[in-house]
Amino acid sequence: QVQLVESGGGLVQPGGSLRLSCAASGSIFSINAMDWYRQAPGKQRELVAGITSDGSTNYADSVKGRFTISRDNAKNTVYLQMNSLKPEDTAVYYCNADRVLLVGRPGWRTYWGQGTQVTVSS
Asked: Above 90 in pLDDT, residue 90?
């Protein structure tokens, strides 16, 4: 029904930058919130940043001032610009689409992407 496809991960040196993208496709009427989560080895998945359809954003304290989330509602795409990357940012980053309304179907739904690896290392 709905697919989330992430891209933009990779290996970067400390202090470097990466831009993640996540495009949602399918029979989508609207998406209320789009978020980025991450999960490092041996740790729980954590919320990194989120953005609502009206542009309201929130960030984890650990990334404030370094990461910027944005979205293109017309393309159902969310971005995460990551600057001043640190080794502790190393994780698999997951895109989440929350409170999704499908065309012709009632009820909210949540979808996850497959994840993209971000490695920060010299």
From this structure: yes
